[in-house]
Design brief:
4 strands, 14% strand, 4 helices, two-stranded antiparallel ribbon, two-stranded parallel ribbon
Length: 102
């Protein structure tokens, strides 16, 4: 299914350990991220949800992944760093996706 997508959004990235019940990183998110990157999808991990998605967001920022996109996309990506309101976050994601499809 991922082969038919143009973008991949990553949220959270944690799970409960079956033996301890504690929250632990969900490595499956990283696996899916790597597949999406290999398929050249637009990658959008949400920093605000923390866990693995936070790590993936920071990784892309450090790799300057978004530097090849328009200034508008880069500006919107930078806003992801601090946006915490759910409606504003959804609006921001929609705006990013609109910008990359133009």
């Amino acid at each position: 299914m991922i082969s038919y997508a143009g973008a991949a959004i990553f949220m959270f990235g944690n799970k409960r350990d079956k033996s301890t019940g504690e929250l632990v990183p969900a490595n499956g998110i990283s696996f899916e991220f790597d597949i999406a990157k290999e398929k050249n999808l637009f990658l959008l991990p949400l920093n605000i949800t923390n866990y693995i998605s936070h790590d993936l967001y920071k990784k892309l920022i450090n790799e300057k992944y978004y530097s090849s996109f328009s200034a508008e996309v880069q500006s919107l990506i930078n806003k992801l760093e601090n946006e915490s309101g759910p409606i504003a976050l959804v609006d921001l994601i929609v705006n990013i996706l609109k910008q990359i499809t133009q």
